[in-house]
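Workshop exercise sheet. Pairs work together: one partner reads the sequence aloud, the other fills in the structure field after running the prediction. Swap roles for the next sheet.
Pair: D.N. / O.F.
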Amino acid sequence: MNRAALRKAIVDASIAIGTEHGESGLTMRGIASRLGVSATALYQHFESKAAILREIRIYCSQLLQAEVLETCRATENPRERLEQMGCRYVDFARRHPWLYSVLTESKQLEWSELTSDESAEILRPLTTVRAWMKEGVAKNCWEQSVDPEMGSIRLWAALHGLCSLIFRGRISENHPVMPITNQDQFVHNFVKSVVDALN
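Structure field:
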């Protein structure tokens, strides 16, 4: 296995272990054992578990861009595009809960340690939404006074908050006080209300 292939295999194995056992179950020894290589071989590619998690974060951001934002790009109306994106964002989080937690809830990145390309990859979903909001303002989907930068952050914060509530069982048919019998419909209605409120 060449160097690039082993590096990818380390990331893939780490994602598999993390998905199965969570971050606490992800260890350098466990990754090496899964791959059938020595721990020394791992350290030749990643100096620590934190470095692997950083690589996974970049991977997850790229996956989010590909599975969520790129699948909405063909929708002509920016407002409708953002509504689609919001619903697919929540679906992405539900399908990849551990990856999503690494992307959004892990320890803050040391941005100074990232290359400009790495920083751009991690921020690409947010910058894409910001560009769509600017396009929407230009096409009169929102009022001219709307701030696309603040609007994109508001949208992300709302979606992330919704995902957190879902993961913690607060948006569920089993909730004792406010049962949600149709989670998908609730997500759709929530996202639409957030996008509508961006005016």
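Discussion prompt: The radius of gyration is 19 Å. What would you look at next?
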